[in-house]
Automatic annotation (TrEMBL):
<keyword id="KW-0479">Metal-binding</keyword>
<dbReference type="InterPro" id="IPR013785">
    <property type="entry name" value="Aldolase_TIM"/>
</dbReference>
<keyword id="KW-0949">S-adenosyl-L-methionine</keyword>
<dbReference type="GO" id="GO:0016853">
    <property type="term" value="F:isomerase activity"/>
</dbReference>
<protein>
    <submittedName>
        <fullName>Methylornithine synthase</fullName>
        <ecNumber>5.4.99.58</ecNumber>
    </submittedName>
</protein>
<feature type="domain" description="Radical SAM core">
    <location>
        <begin position="58"/>
        <end position="284"/>
    </location>
</feature>
<dbReference type="InterPro" id="IPR006638">
    <property type="entry name" value="Elp3/MiaA/NifB-like_rSAM"/>
</dbReference>
<dbReference type="InterPro" id="IPR058240">
    <property type="entry name" value="rSAM_sf"/>
</dbReference>
<keyword id="KW-0411">Iron-sulfur</keyword>
<keyword id="KW-0413">Isomerase</keyword>
<dbReference type="InterPro" id="IPR034422">
    <property type="entry name" value="HydE/PylB-like"/>
</dbReference>
<dbReference type="Pfam" id="PF04055">
    <property type="entry name" value="Radical_SAM"/>
</dbReference>
<keyword id="KW-0408">Iron</keyword>
<dbReference type="InterPro" id="IPR023891">
    <property type="entry name" value="Pyrrolys_PylB"/>
</dbReference>
<dbReference type="InterPro" id="IPR007197">
    <property type="entry name" value="rSAM"/>
</dbReference>
Amino acid sequence: MGNVMLLSNKVDIILEKAMYEEELTSDEIKYLLLLSEKDDIAKMFRVARFLRYKYFKNKIFYYGFLYFSTFCRNNCNFCLYRKSNQIVQRYRKDKKEILEISEQLIASGVHLIDFTMGEDPYYLLNDENLEELMNLFKEIKTKFNIPLMVSPGVVSEKILDNFKIAGVNWYACYQETHNKKLYQKLRINQSFNERMEKKFYAKKIGLLIEEGILVGVGETVDDIINSFENMKILDADQVRVMSFIPQRNTPMENWISPQRIWELKIIAVMRLLFPDRLIPASLDVDGFSGLKDRLAAGANVITSIIPPRKGLKGVSNSELDIDDGKRSTDFITPFLMKHNLCPANKEEYEAWLLKRKRPGDF
Ligand code: SF4
């Protein structure tokens, strides 16, 4: 990068600041997000990788994904599993299947399992079923001693307390946008504030938080900057961005998926702003073929690792690369090695979790 005094190019000056982890102004962040020259974008990605290396060396984390119930009481306009979508075949995995899939994921070397469901009334409105779910998490925790993430949508504080007691480490609940007007268009009849407040509550009781945004849904550059600010206020431990994929038989089915460079630039800027945090490269958007670019932009967690032939679905690209095994660690590890990266070991992931622990947590 050279000495800042010798830099005359605006992008170099901003990236130099980022490299030394000086706070960037909103205008500087905007400038980076709007970069259009290939060389400038490549420079930004290099700095993002430099910062990733500074905190994580060449280690990458694997997250197993278990979408155990695709039932939902909500009607988000962007989502395949919205309640009104009658053409989608839904499933709810039973205890035996969940245990078996968890075991398979753990044996494959994932560092964490993300248990995801829609806001399924079967669990959220029935104490007995919910208790069974908590017991299942406790059992998995005791048996396998693996970090767990839950992505159950907006749930009560009592349920969050129970997750914590069951040994869950993470609460993932993506706002998708922090522009309240846009939020209302995306998450129909759902409270913006309640969704945010649940994350603050979860943080308070010692759960780690993943916050995420969806792009290509009508957001502006300023909305992205606003989301970064919210992620900072939330002190999110993991920050994610995903490109919108139009879903059949939904109000947004005729929208066009955004150019991927938009997501990639946001990943890179996230790395500059949150250098020591986890940033996913999701297999759910473009499958295995989209992995290289996301890692090159500074991501350090590969999410949505799904065992083949278990009847499991992804979220945005519900079937892509699942049954042919391309979302498995066996397939991904050689690819990482080829690119001078490698999977972290269990201890390295747990050491990172410990670093994020605050007094009184866990
Ligand atoms: S995004 Fe989540 S809450 Fe919204 S409809 Fe889909 S599964 Fe339900």
